[in-house]
From TrEMBL:
Record-annotated Major facilitator superfamily (MFS) profile domain positions: 12-427
Descriptive protein name: MFS transporter
Compartment(s): Cell membrane
GO cellular component annotations of the record: plasma membrane
Pfam family, one: MFS_1
PANTHER family recorded: MACROLIDE-EFFLUX PROTEIN (PTHR43266), MAJOR FACILITATOR SUPERFAMILY (MFS) PROFILE DOMAIN-CONTAINING PROTEIN (PTHR43266:SF2)
Membrane-crossing residue ranges in chain numbering: 12-30, 50-70, 77-98, 104-125, 146-166, 172-190, 225-250, 256-276, 288-308, 314-336, 401-423
Source species of the chain: Komarekiella delphini-convector SJRDD-AB1
InterPro entries per UniProt: MFS, MFS_dom, MFS_trans_sf
Principal subcellular localization: membrane
Entry membrane topology: Multi-pass membrane protein
GO molecular function: transmembrane transporter activity
Length: 438
């Protein structure tokens, strides 16, 4: 085993971040390739939706319990074991593919296993960041984390489409395995500060379920944090519905090449937001105000996207929407990192991920029926709303989905304005003391 390097604080975070960046790029590339491969092999949107469900649902279910263990274990070793488990699952898929024995249910199972390991990985990473990074740089560190995610979102479709034709799915698996090895090497080269076990853990040395529930009680006692989490979950539900419908909306009047251009510009927006947050996110910013401002921008972007079938307008909407995501996610993350005690961050962050992510499977399930059975029929040439709203946004294929974007964008803005009136949420940074003092 490599001897740990004698580096501290922000330097350790940068080393770990670099490893996780490479790992995330490899995983994003592999996930994109698997989505394409499953759809090509099955020709079924349902099979693809099942893959998305198996990729998200296990993490949602396991997260509250994983957080308890993250608080009790060495967070560096949690990340090492999580990366190792995900790498082993990818290696198994690669072996099945090479031997010609792979079936779609193998991919479902492997995706569920990888999702389960991610339930440990991300809370450990977030909680470790709080220990490694000085308080004034938490915004910058969170921006860097979301910058890594943005790079994966931007480059995985571009590289995945090219590499699938050159090195095939088996070659992409090898690239992904190499990224895991790099991430594991960086983790083996560093040491994390030990987090102290305080009364929060001593009180709750009971059953795993009791300790998991403690994360909810911890948030319930801090109404501003609980309100922020519930607001985020509600927003994710609306965004999850539109996430399913963005491709049908664009393809209702544009080509697949134009779809690629719009999504790539969205990736550029996310990359820009991540870069800005990673360079600007230090000092004494009011993160809750940043959160609210960019939530309003996201709602406005949804309205713009649905209002008129225009490539130009969709390019603007995509750029603005994805530009705001790093600011929203980073601001929320920094608030939680500052206000939640380090010894319970694992279970609280896991609960945060579980609650905010639990809305996505429901969103995926209702998106199709809402579009096909309600909104699209309303906006046909002879639909019930053709004579009024149809005169503003047009009628025909895709216009019902466009109306959904307008409605949900408006709801997002109204939710944001309403949430801002709730004092414990608006004043969460002032009323709750900072746990992190360095």
């Amino acid at each position: 085993m490599p001897k740990p390097l004698k580096i501290e604080g922000m330097s350790i975070f940068i080393v770990v971040w670099l490893g996780q960046l490479v790992s995330l790029l490899g995983s994003s590339l592999s996930n994109f390739a698997l989505d394409v491969w499953v759809y090509q092999q099955s020709g079924s949107v349902t099979q693809l939706s099942f893959l998305i469900l198996f990729t998200t649902l296990p993490s949602v279910i396991i997260s509250p319990f994983a957080g308890v263990l993250v608080d009790s274990w060495n967070r560096r070793w949690v990340m090492i074991l999580s990366d190792s488990g995900a790498a082993l699952s990818t290696l198994t898929l690669a072996a099945l593919l090479v031997t010609g024995k792979i079936q779609i249910w193998h991919i479902y199972l492997a995706s569920a296993v990888i999702s389960s390991f991610s339930a440990f990985q991300w809370p450990a990473y977030s909680a470790a960041t709080t220990l490694l990074v000085p308080k004034k740089y938490l915004g910058r560190a969170s921006g860097m984390t979301h910058l890594a995610y943005a790079l994966g979102q931007l480059f995985s479709p571009i590289l995945g489409g090219v590499l699938l034709g050159i090195i095939q799915l088996s070659g992409i698996f090898i690239v992904d395995l190499g990224s895991f090895v790099f991430a594991l090497t960086t983790l083996l080269l560093v040491r994390f500060p030990h987090h102290k076990v305080t009364r929060h853990q001593q009180i709750n040395k009971t059953s795993l379920l009791t300790q998991a529930i403690y994360g909810f009680h911890y948030l319930k006692a801090r109404s501003g944090l609980l309100a922020l989490l519930l607001f985020l979950a509600s927003s994710n539900f609306l965004v999850g519905i539109l996430q399913v419908l963005i491709y049908p909306l664009i393809l209702s009047f544009a080509s697949s090449a134009q779809l690629g251009t719009i999504m790539s510009l969205g990736g550029v927006g996310m990359l820009t937001g991540g870069l800005l947050m990673s360079t600007w996110g230090s000092g004494r910013q009011n993160y809750i105000n940043i959160f609210f401002c960019f939530m309003l921008l996201n709602g406005f972007s949804m309205i713009v996207a649905g209002f008129y079938p225009s490539i130009f307008m969709l390019n603007i909407a995509a750029f603005l929407f994805f530009l705001g995501l790093p600011f929203i996610s980073s601001s929320c993350q920094v608030i939680f990192q500052k206000k939640v005690a380090p010894d319970v961050q694992g279970r609280v962050f896991s609960l945060k991920n579980a609650i905010s992510g639990s809305c996505l499977p429901l969103a995926y399930l209702v998106a199709g029926p809402l579009a096909d059975r309600i909104f699209e029929p309303l906006m046909t040439v002879n639909g019930a709303l053709a004579g009024n709203i149809g005169k503003l946004i047009g009628t025909g294929p895709g216009r019902g989905i466009g109306l959904m974007f307008i409605v949900f964008g408006t709801l997002t803005m109204l939710m944001t304005i309403t949430a801002y009136q709730y004092a414990p949420l608006r004043l969460v940074e002032h009323e709750l003391p900072d746990i992190v003092t360095s």
